[in-house]
Design goal:
Elements: H1 2-35, H2 37-40, H3 75-82, H4 89-95, H5 99-102, H6 116-127, H7 147-156
Helix pairs in contact: 1-6, 4-6
This protein binds heme C.
Heme C (HEC) binds at residues 38-39, 41-43, 53-55, 60, 63, 65-66, 68, 73-74, 76-77, 87, 92, 96, 106-110, 113, 122.
């Protein structure tokens, strides 16, 4: 009898968990869209996006830093790319804490986002504009707490 109940609980959990994970991800993207309002002053994404004060952020992930065509970058950002900086969600989360510490000499005039949840959310939002991005083998999951969902997604690709 007990085992039947246990099995029923396990089964219902199995049905609930993927939905909860998907919802959590949607929430994060929505939060990221909100955070992106701070970036929108300078950056565009989506259909018809153009380079403005900052470069287009469509297809950001997988891009070598400082290489969006038609955008005039600082020497510092170009040098970062030449040194091998390729944008990934993880690196973006690091960069956005204090952009001018991460890329000394960048002309991105943005102090940074102190809250890691905001940085991860904006990375999750921007990921929806990088449809062709495939994380390289061995890339760290975006955050410890998100490891399960991020890895689950990677595995299903
Ligand atoms: C005040 C304008 C401004 C704001 C606000 C701003 N950026 Fe930028 N961003 C720039 C400029 C200018 C550059 C080019 C930097 C350089 O060449 O050194 C840049 C570069 C970048 C790059 C490098 C892209 C590439 O092609 O290598 C990323 C990524 C980025 N910004 C993300 C963001 C995100 C995310 C936000 C919001 C949290 C944001 N930026 C807010 C102006 C801005």
């Amino acid at each position: 009898m007990k085992s039947v109940v246990t099995r029923a609980v396990v089964l219902s959990l199995a049905l609930v968990i993927p939905t909860a994970a998907a919802l959590a991800q949607d929430d994060q993207v929505a939060q990221g869209e909100n955070v992106f309002k701070k970036c929108k002053v300078c950056h565009q994404v989506g259909d018809g996006a153009a380079n403005k004060v900052g470069p287009i952020l469509n297809n950001l992930f997988g891009r070598v830093a400082g290489t969006e065509e038609g955008f005039k970058y600082s020497d510092a950002m170009v040098a970062k790319g030449q040194d091998g900086l390729i944008w990934t969600p993880e690196i973006l989360v690091e960069y956005l804490e204090k952009p001018r510490d991460f890329v000394p000499g960048t002309k991105m005039a943005f102090a940074g986002l102190a809250d890691i949840a905001d940085r991860e959310a904006v990375a999750a939002y921007l990921l929806t504009f990088s449809p062709d991005y495939v994380p390289a083998e061995g890339d760290a999951a975006m955050a410890e707490g998100d490891a399960a969902t991020t890895e689950g997604d990677a595995a299903s690709q």
